Recover the amino acids of this structure.
C-alpha cells in the first residue's frame, strides 16, 4: 500500500531542514567567491609589483620566493614526520560506519577527513592521526583515495579502533567522542586516544557512535562542551574536521 501521509510536524521539520541546507550552501558559495576574488586580487598585485622591477630585481625576487617556498615545505614535512612517529595525543577517525551511508555521504566523509588532515598539517599540529576499519570491503576507501589519501602521512589500519587500541581501552585511556555522551570533555591529555566517529548522515541517527562504543565495552564517552563554550544555538553534531 501507499506510505502514510506525513504529519504536519514532520513536514515542518523537513522544510526547516531543507531551508537550513539551502542557507548553508548559499553561505558556502559566498565564502568561495570571496576567497576567489581575494586570491585574484593578490595575484594582480604581485604581477604589478613584478612589472615595476628591473630584470635583475625580478630574478632576485623570484629566487627569494622559491627559497621561502622550499623552506616552508621542509618545515611542514618535518612536523608531519614528527607527528607520524611521536605525535600526541592520538586522534582516530573510526570509519566502521560506512555501510550505512550512500555515495554522497561517503564523498562528504572523505572530504571531511581530507580537511582534518590538511588543517592538522597547516596548523603544525603535533597530534598523531589514525584512520581505522579501512579493510578492502569498506566502501569509503575509494572516496578517500580520490581525495589523495595515498599521499597523506598518517596511520591507516585495516583493523577496527577497538583492536588497534585494545591496550589503551583496557587502561581507560580510550576516549570516544559522541554527541550522545552524558559527560563533557573538559581537557585533552597527551596519553589518551580520542576517537571521532566517521559518520556523515544527512539525518543523523541518534546514538550511532555511542551504541557501538557501549557494545565494545568503552567506558570513557565524552561530548564536546558546545552548550557551555560553543556559539548559541550551536548544533551538537559537528563535521569531523570541526571536531
Amino acid at each position: 500500500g501507499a506510505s502514510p501521509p506525513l504529519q504536519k510536524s514532520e513536514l515542518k521539520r523537513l522544510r526547516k531542514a531543507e531551508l537550513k541546507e539551502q542557507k548553508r550552501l548559499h553561505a558556502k558559495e559566498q565564502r568561495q567567491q570571496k576567497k576567489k576574488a581575494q586570491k585574484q586580487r593578490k595575484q594582480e598585485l604581485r604581477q604589478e609589483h613584478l612589472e615595476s622591477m628591473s630584470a635583475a630585481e625580478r630574478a632576485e625576487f623570484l629566487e627569494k620566493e622559491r627559497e621561502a617556498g622550499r623552506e616552508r615545505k621542509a618545515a611542514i614535512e618535518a612536523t608531519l614526520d614528527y607527528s607520524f612517529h611521536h605525535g600526541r595525543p592520538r586522534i582516530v577517525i573510526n570509519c566502521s560506519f560506512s555501510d550505512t551511508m550512500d555515495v554522497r555521504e561517503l564523498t562528504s566523509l572523505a572530504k571531511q577527513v581530507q580537511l582534518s588532515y590538511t588543517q592538522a598539517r597547516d596548523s603544525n599540529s603535533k597530534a598523531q592521526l589514525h584512520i581505522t576499519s579501512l579493510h578492502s570491503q569498506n566502501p569509503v576507501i575509494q572516496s578517500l583515495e580520490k581525495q589523495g589519501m595515498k599521499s597523506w602521512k598518517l596511520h591507516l589500519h585495516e583493523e577496527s579502533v577497538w583492536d588497534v587500541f585494545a591496550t589503551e581501552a583496557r587502561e581507560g585511556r580510550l576516549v570516544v567522542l559522541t554527541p550522545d555522551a552524558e559527560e563533557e570533555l573538559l581537557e585533552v591529555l597527551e596519553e589518551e586516544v580520542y576517537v571521532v566517529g566517521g559518520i556523515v548522515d544527512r539525518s543523523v541517527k541518534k546514538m550511532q557512535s555511542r551504541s557501538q562504543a557501549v557494545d565494545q565495552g568503552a567506558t570513557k564517552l565524552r561530548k564536546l562542551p558546545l552548550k557551555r563554550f560553543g556559539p548559541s544555538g550551536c548544533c551538537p553534531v559537528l563535521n569531523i574536521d570541526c571536531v
Remarks:
- The radius of gyration is 22 Å.
- Confidence is low (pLDDT under 50) at residues 232-237.
- DSSP finds eight helices and seven strands in the chain.
